[in-house]
Amino acid sequence: MDQRNFTYMFYGFAAAWAIVAIYVLTLVSRERRLGRQVEDVKRMLEDREKK
């Protein structure tokens, strides 16, 4: 194999891992946001029950 092929393969794998990492970070961010919203709704329900 030519050395250029390994270089392109490295860049391809690096790009693929970067895309996967960005996707995972996006999912973590969404999950945290949803968790905060669920906690807000729980607090709202508790406040409403106290009244």
Overall description:
The chain has one helix spanning 3-50. By secondary structure, it is an all-alpha fold. It has a domain at 19-51. The mean pLDDT is 94.
Radius of gyration: 22 Å
| Strand-pairing-aware structural class | mainly alpha
**In percent, how helical is the residue content?**
over 70%
Shape call: rod-shaped
Overall mean pLDDT: 94
Order of helices and strands: H
Strand percentage: under 5%
Count of strand segments = 0
- SS summary, helix count: 1
Which regions have little confidence, pLDDT < 50, spanning 5+ residues? none
Major beta-sheet overview: none
What is the terminal separation in angstroms? 75 Å
Name some characteristics of this structure.
single chain, 51 residues, mainly alpha, 1 helix
Give a quick precis of the structure.
This protein is mainly α and about 50 residues long. About 95% of the residues lie in helices and about 0% in strands. It has a domain at about 20-50.
Helix and strand arrangement:
Blueprint (H helix, E strand, L loop, with lengths): L2 H48 L1
